[in-house]
């Protein structure tokens, strides 16, 4: 008697499903081009499990700005062209406003979070509430005093702990969100339990929503498999991660908004350590406009275009969410002769050398002059009905933190004990939400009066 394994049974069942799908759901138009897969499993074996956006960038050189793959019957459309992104995600109303069902995230409770919630009345209700508070650039004015104070507190933390940049920057963004949303003041010394909770939550969310990380996301019926069964380790992991999600529900924290500011601030110090000319240009502009007798404020923004360009380049260079959570097509769509079937997952990522010259280089000058390259803020906060409701808050928070850091610090490469210069590497962590991997650099006050200026600003 032949003993069939769990995997054998799974493949047989899905072969039948795919045959049924082929007979009953065919489309006259072809899917967007992409790498050839295998029967039944499609592109499962060739689908990248780590930093997929890098592989997608290579694929786009061959297949173009829109391509597709198939993972065990699930169509995934990948876009690397700004105009196609706008056409498909930005101009189609609710057609691509849904999120795919992500069974692993649901098992952990993350379907309760706005960023991964399915499109429907609950999502629209949450969006409307957030839009009333954060929905316009004008609404940010009332939050600027909080943002300015927390950015100045960041300077103080760096001055107090110059060698602990990786620990200081998460505290800053978390402090703003907690202060703004709940009136909660974080601990002035050491770590704060709510900020630590946010960091833990982001790490876990990034793992469970990473494309290709869990087979249950393309075989949702696996959720019925007992946790003791071989191959069901995801269920045991889900129980562990559910605890964190439940803690966020009982200890309220707007953790998603926090992460963009966290990552961008950290990337700023990495960029300046690697590109000293950028720092020199920023310092020259800051001294010319603001001088050395005070710290910059929001009132200086229009007069600091190079600092603004640095902020744009930080959003583009090492994006916080290179792929983000995918969209889902709620009906069949035709685009330029290609079929995007109902239920398709749609990802966008934009690192196209046809759009940005030398895209892996950090170069704020690309946004200066009469013919600047495309502003990454046009797409990095999402599209259509899924655009980030906290986009204006993130933009203003990033700007004030970067502007004050330009005014206050010199950032240089570290010299090791052997006398050799240590060159940081511009690499990111894994997952849906990423940040630069830990690195070391030297951060020192630009001039002796910086500590006094910081203390005076906090006292005022």
UniProtKB/TrEMBL annotation:
<keyword id="KW-0503">Monooxygenase</keyword>
<comment type="similarity">
    <text>Belongs to the cytochrome P450 family.</text>
</comment>
<keyword id="KW-0349">Heme</keyword>
<dbReference type="InterPro" id="IPR036396">
    <property type="entry name" value="Cyt_P450_sf"/>
</dbReference>
<dbReference type="GO" id="GO:0020037">
    <property type="term" value="F:heme binding"/>
</dbReference>
<dbReference type="InterPro" id="IPR002401">
    <property type="entry name" value="Cyt_P450_E_grp-I"/>
</dbReference>
<feature type="binding site" description="axial binding residue">
    <location>
        <position position="388"/>
    </location>
    <ligand>
        <name>heme</name>
    </ligand>
</feature>
<keyword id="KW-0732">Signal</keyword>
<protein>
    <recommendedName>
        <fullName>Cytochrome P450</fullName>
    </recommendedName>
</protein>
<dbReference type="GO" id="GO:0005506">
    <property type="term" value="F:iron ion binding"/>
</dbReference>
<comment type="pathway">
    <text>Secondary metabolite biosynthesis.</text>
</comment>
<keyword id="KW-0479">Metal-binding</keyword>
<dbReference type="InterPro" id="IPR001128">
    <property type="entry name" value="Cyt_P450"/>
</dbReference>
<dbReference type="InterPro" id="IPR017972">
    <property type="entry name" value="Cyt_P450_CS"/>
</dbReference>
<dbReference type="GO" id="GO:0016705">
    <property type="term" value="F:oxidoreductase activity, acting on paired donors, with incorporation or reduction of molecular oxygen"/>
</dbReference>
<dbReference type="Pfam" id="PF00067">
    <property type="entry name" value="p450"/>
</dbReference>
<keyword id="KW-0560">Oxidoreductase</keyword>
<dbReference type="GO" id="GO:0004497">
    <property type="term" value="F:monooxygenase activity"/>
</dbReference>
<keyword id="KW-0408">Iron</keyword>
<dbReference type="InterPro" id="IPR050364">
    <property type="entry name" value="Cytochrome_P450_fung"/>
</dbReference>
<feature type="signal peptide">
    <location>
        <begin position="1"/>
        <end position="25"/>
    </location>
</feature>
């Amino acid at each position: 008697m032949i003993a069939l394994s769990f995997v054998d049974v799974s493949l047989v069942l899905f072969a039948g499903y795919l045959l049924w799908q082929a007979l009953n759901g065919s489309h006259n138009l072809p899917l967007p081009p992409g790498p050839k897969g295998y029967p039944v499993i499609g592109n499962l074996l060739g689908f990248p499990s780590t930093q997929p956006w890098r592989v997608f960038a290579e694929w786009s050189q061959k297949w173009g700005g829109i391509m597709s793959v198939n993972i065990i019957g699930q169509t995934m459309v990948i876009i690397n062209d700004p105009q196609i992104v706008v056409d498909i995600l930005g101009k189609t109303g609710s057609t691509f406003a849904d999120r795919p069902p992500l069974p692993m995230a649901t098992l952990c409770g993350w379907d309760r979070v706005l960023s991964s919630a399915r499109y429907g009345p609950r999502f629209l209700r949450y969006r409307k509430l957030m839009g009333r508070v954060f929905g316009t650039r004008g609404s940010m004015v009332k939050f600027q005093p909080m943002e300015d104070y927390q950015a100045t507190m960041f300077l103080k933390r760096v001055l107090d702990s110059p060698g602990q940049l990786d620990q200081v920057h998460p505290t800053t963004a978390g402090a703003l969100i907690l202060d703004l949303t709940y009136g909660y003041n974080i601990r002035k010394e050491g770590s704060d339990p709510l900020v630590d909770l946010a960091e833990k939550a982001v790490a876990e969310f990034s793992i469970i929503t990473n494309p290709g990380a869990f087979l249950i996301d393309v075989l949702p019926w696996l959720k019925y498999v007992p946790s003791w069964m071989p191959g069901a380790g995801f269920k045991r992991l889900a129980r562990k991660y559910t605890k964190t999600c439940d803690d966020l529900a009982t200890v309220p924290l707007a953790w998603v908004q926090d992460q963009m500011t966290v990552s961008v601030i950290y990337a700023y110090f990495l960029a300046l350590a690697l590109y000293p000319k950028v720092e020199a240009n920023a310092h020259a502009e800051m001294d010319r406009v603001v001088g050395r007798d005070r710290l910059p404020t929001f009132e200086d923004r229009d007069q600091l275009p190079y600092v603004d360009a640095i902020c744009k380049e930080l959003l583009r260079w090492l994006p916080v969410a290179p792929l983000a959570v995918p969209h889902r097509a709620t009906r069949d769509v035709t685009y330029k002769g290609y079929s995007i079937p109902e239920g398709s997952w749609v990802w966008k990522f934009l690192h196209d050398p046809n759009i940005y010259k030398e895209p892996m280089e950090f170069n704020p000058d690309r946004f200066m002059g009469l013919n600047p390259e495309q502003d990454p803020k046009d797409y990095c906060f999402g599209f259509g009905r899924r655009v980030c409701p906290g986009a204006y808050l993130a933009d203003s928070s990033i700007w004030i933190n970067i502007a004050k850091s330009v005014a206050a610090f010199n950032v240089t490469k570290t010299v090791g004990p052997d006398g050799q210069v240590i060159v940081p590497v511009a690499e990111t962590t894994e997952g849906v939400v990423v940040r630069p991997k830990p690195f070391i650099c030297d951060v020192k006050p630009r001039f002796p009066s910086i500590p006094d200026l910081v203390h005076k600003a906090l006292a005022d």
